[in-house]
Write a structure and sequence with these properties.
This protein is α/β, with parallel strands linked by helices and about 600 residues long. Helix content is about 40%, strand content about 20%. The chain is built from 19 helices and 24 strands.
């Protein structure tokens, strides 16, 4: 038996919403795949004097027996060290000898050590060795680790949990933090004892420990929806902190740059003393790797579930991907609302299964799903947006007046706008304020960096967009049909951790919208060779158009400059997708001076 990976989960996650602290382990049983259940029963019976649970006969396969023995051993070791833990679970992977397992922990370091020790002990049992001495050594080691832990910290955390006061554990160089946003306080180790005595006095009004949390996820549209919600809330005079795939912002000021859609970034916003409302873009990767950065949210928005990231982190199907994104819906607190897309099969199913209140948005007033829904919903009829509340249909605004929709020509941006409008209605924002916010939110590098950013050059336009999956490419293709450019050049790139057919599909869609395609395959290799990714893209293009005009941009060349130097026809357009450009805003401003 071999441990392939170990990952602590520190918040609500794909395995459990209520049991947050789990160690996720990938175990390889290839070396044991020839063992029979009968042989294992004999081996474990010999060791059951030390650990009676090993004598269980409630398993029908050797793999089940080994998983049970390993996870229960990790639980047993922690219990012997003084921790009250019990939860375990497992899932198979596409490799029949490899499984993902989880087990509960209370102290992360001790929890991780427990699986190392558990695997050692089970391997000793499989080799017919006496484990008595080794088992006792491991128990004593974990007990020692436990006695070295800060007792006051443990008591303070237990007091917060009993009083239902939110806290953020110490992380890296950051201290314990009690309360969220404007109500939060950093607690140094020296202050643990005094804080324990004053905790209930400090948070006498427990409502002044929490701030509203709005969580947004989905395959496409997360960042734009997050930014638009944050903008509307700022127009409504809230102090807003939000996370996106390009940075953390507090009151419009970037405080951290990069992809900040994971739980650590969420906690950075919740730690910030200026924040009254947290708006948190919540990506698939963070949920899978570590869980959510919060226990509960007031609003959850799922924009859609599309074909993306399949084959990564053992998420092989659309149904499994939807389950990942559904975690934020399951984390909606009592009295909160999930805002969901009625036009998407997977988000529709989430809403039908949800235990919280649900509000829907749709671009299709004739959507048959609406006939069976008793919930509030926002919809488009003709070119007008209406909010259906009970039996009343309230006019909100015209789609053409929403700047990010480019006068209604961008269906996916219309959906993003609807998601944001509906979320803010559920939050309680006055409709007039919402309309003011939506109409003052413009596509461009200031408010939607990297999303539908269009720049004017003398002979052409340059558009930069983050579209990186088939659904995103299809949305760009629909927009380009309404664009009157005579000659369109696309700059694209494949991604190495996507399925072959998905990379080919990007090529196929590209062949429908560009007169000439440039492939600059120096980024996002992720285990593949550049040559293979280029070949997949070209195969897809040629499936659509055998005579497609394309070329590969040399690795050393800057792709936007390469494209600009090709333009010899007025009214042309260059479209750079999938984050293929490095620092696009800097490049564009530089080249606008030269071209």
């Amino acid at each position: 038996m071999q441990i392939l990976s170990v990952q602590p989960l520190r918040g609500p996650n794909l395995w459990s919403i209520s049991t947050h602290l789990l160690i996720q382990v990938k175990l390889d049983f290839t070396a044991e795949n020839t063992l029979s259940i009968e042989a294992l029963n004999i081996l474990f019976a010999r060791a059951s004097a030390n650990c009676p649970f090993l004598n269980s006969n409630a398993h029908t396969s050797a793999a089940q027996k080994l998983i049970f023995a390993t996870t229960q051993m990790a639980i047993y070791l922690q219990k012997q060290a003084g921790f009250d833990v019990s939860y375990t679970a497992y899932k198979s992977t596409i490799n029949k000898n490899i499984y993902n397992v989880v087990y509960e922990y209370q102290n992360e370091d001790i929890g991780i050590a427990a699986i190392d020790y558990a695997v050692d002990i089970v391997n000793l049992i499989l080799n017919s060795e006496d484990v008595t001495f080794q088992l006792q050594n491991y128990v004593e080691d974990l007990k020692l680790k436990n006695t070295l832990e800060n007792v006051d910290l443990k008591k303070l955390i237990e007091a917060c949990e009993q009083a239902n006061i939110p806290y953020i554990l110490p992380d890296e160089d950051l201290p314990l933090h009690i309360g969220y946003g404007i109500y939060g306080k950093d607690i140094s180790p020296a202050a643990y004892q005094s804080t324990l005595k004053e905790l209930l006095i400090l948070f006498k009004d427990k409502t002044k420990a929490f701030i509203p949390i709005i969580a947004i996820t989905g395959s496409n549209g997360k960042t734009t929806t997050t930014r638009l919600i944050a903008h509307i809330l700022q127009v409504a005079n809230y102090q807003v902190g939000f996370t996106t795939s390009d940075g953390i912002y507090v009151q419009g000021e970037m405080i951290d740059k990069g992809d900040t859609t994971g739980p650590f970034s969420a906690k950075m916003v919740l730690r910030n003393p200026k924040v009254e409302v947290a708006v948190l873009e919540t990506a698939r990767g963070g949920i899978v790797r570590a869980g959510l950065g919060f226990n509960q949210c007031d609003l959850a928005i799922v924009t859609n579930v599309q074909n993306d990231h399949l084959g990564i982190s053992d998420i092989e199907t659309m149904e499994a991907l939807a389950k990942v994104k559904e975690v934020i819906v399951q984390a909606v607190k009592s009295g909160g609302t999930a805002t969901l897309n009625a036009d998407n099969f997977y988000t529709l199913q989430m809403g039908l299964d949800a235990k919280c209140k649900v509000a829907w948005f749709t671009t299709d007033v004739k959507n048959p799903a609406l006939n069976n829904l008793q919930d509030d919903y926002l919809y488009v009829e003709g070119e007008k947006v209406y909010y259906r509340k009970g039996c009343e249909a309230i006019y909100m605004m015209d789609v053409n007046d929403i700047p990010i929709t480019f006068k209604g020509t961008l269906g996916f941006m219309t959906q993003n706008a609807l998601a944001a409008i509906l979320a803010c209605l559920q939050f309680g924002i006055d409709p007039e304020i919402i309309v003011k916010g939506v109409t003052s939110f413009y596509p461009g590098e200031a408010q939607t960096p990297g999303r539908m950013n269009i720049y004017q050059f003398k002979q052409c336009q340059v558009m930069v967009d983050f579209a990186h999956n088939p659904e995103g490419f299809t949305g760009i293709a629909a927009f380009l049909k309404s664009n009157h450019a005579k000659y369109k050049i696309g700059i694209i790139v494949g991604t190495g951790d996507r399925k072959d057919e998905d990379v080919k599909l990007l090529g196929k869609i590209s062949a429908t919208m560009f007169d000439h395609v440039l492939i600059h395959q120096v980024k996002f290799l992720r285990g593949q060779t550049a040559e293979r990714l280029v070949s997949l893209l070209v195969d897809g293009m040629k499936q659509e158009n055998p005579n497609i005009s394309w070329q590969r941009v040399p690795d050393e060349a800057e792709p936007l400059l390469f494209a600009l130097q090709m333009i010899n026809t007025e009214n042309s357009m260059i479209v750079a997708l999938s984050d293929v450009l490095n620092e696009p805003t800097v490049l564009v401003k530089k080249y606008q001076m030269e071209f």
